[in-house]
Amino acid sequence: MDLMFGQKHRDPARRTQNEPRPQVYRNVFQAYGTYVFPVGSGITVDFGKFYSALGFENNYAYDEINYSRSFYFNHLPFYHMGFRSTYNVNDKLSVQHLIVNGANQTEDFNGFKSNAFLFTIKPAKSVSWNVNYYFGNEIVN
């Protein structure tokens, strides 16, 4: 569980149009449980609210090469609520699937789910490439 307090905590949750009750979730940045299914190298399944890995910059941008907290950061999903499954095919490829309520949406208010497929390719120890495909029928109220 990651909790956020103070003025900075409002940044990831400042877009409240996807939250019918935003104040309830404002301080909870992440809260999820994990189970590893013993299949192959292990399928890791998380359920709960977790930060989004989609976009040019994400919430932990200081760890990335594209660290700016600028234009890119203002137009990204900050978090998702739902299931995240990860499977490491080998040391060079990992595959992830998300089935979530939507972007920046803790409560489901429209009956639809969004999906994402994320592939992380690591051709070398210091290089990784991410390919993401996110889709869903989410309508902002």
Describe what you observe in this structure.
With 141 residues, this protein is mostly beta strands. The radius of gyration is 16 Å and the shape is globular. The mean pLDDT is 79.
List keywords for this structure.
single chain; 141 residues; mainly beta; seven-stranded antiparallel β-sheet; 1 helix; globular
Q: Could you give the order of the helices and strands?
A: EHEEEEEE
Structure class: mainly beta
Rg computed from alpha carbons, rounded to a whole number of angstroms: 16 Å
Measure the end-to-end span: 28 Å
> What is the averaged pLDDT score?
79
Low-confidence residue ranges: none
Helix fraction? under 10%
- So how many helices? 1
Strands across the major sheet, in which order? 1-2-3-4-5-6-7
**General form:** globular
Outline the fold blueprint.
Elements lengths: L1 E2 L18 H4 L2 E10 L5 E9 L27 E12 L2 E8 L13 E11 L2 E10 L5
Antiparallel strand pairs: 1-2, 2-3, 3-4, 4-5, 5-6, 6-7
Quick overview:
With 141 residues, the protein is mainly β.
